[in-house]
Fold this protein.
Amino acid sequence: GAVVSQHPSWVICKSGTSVKIECRSLDFQATTMFWYRQFPKQSLMLMATSNEGSKATYEQGVEKDKFLINHASLTLSTLTVTSAHPEDSSFYICSVRGGFFGPGTRLTVL
Amino acid sequence: DAKTTQPTSMDCAEGRAANLPCNHSTISGNEYVYWYRQIHSQGPQYIIHGLKNNETNEMASLIITEDRKSSTLILPHATLRDTAVYYCIVRVAGRDDKIIFGKGTRLHILP
């Protein structure tokens, strides 16, 4: 299976700042990666599909201008939460090949 | 992907077998049954998958009914570390499709 890493594992930021989360596929060239978010005691919710070399595809209700996705290489996708607010505090998880997941990034916005 | 139905939560005594059911009555012929679990504050972990035959690996066994409308994940000797949310998902294997998660089953292993 694919090995996926995320960085950072946790981050705390002030309201109004932007935060970048990295997702790396360590042993697999991923043309597609997926981003999820998870609120406490809830299931994972798919946010967007990241496509290498092209625009991401966002799920309904996810603001593309707020959650910027860049998939510039076959091993790296980044999710930038712009102008973060406390309601963006969540657990963000990426996956590759539709079935191998990163360890997640805990974002806390103060 | 077809929809699945799982109990919200289950308890199991440590050392006993944990049997987690899943209904997937609308599964298509080319869809596999996949099981993942998520331990608190971690990413989901793949457990096992199968098409129609029963499957076993070092983590678990998967029993799929003959009509493929339901399945059971079996953890043969549950330990406290098996406490997690378990997700049953049906999807076409090998495709780069997104995975849509249901609510899963919250399994509590009791000491």
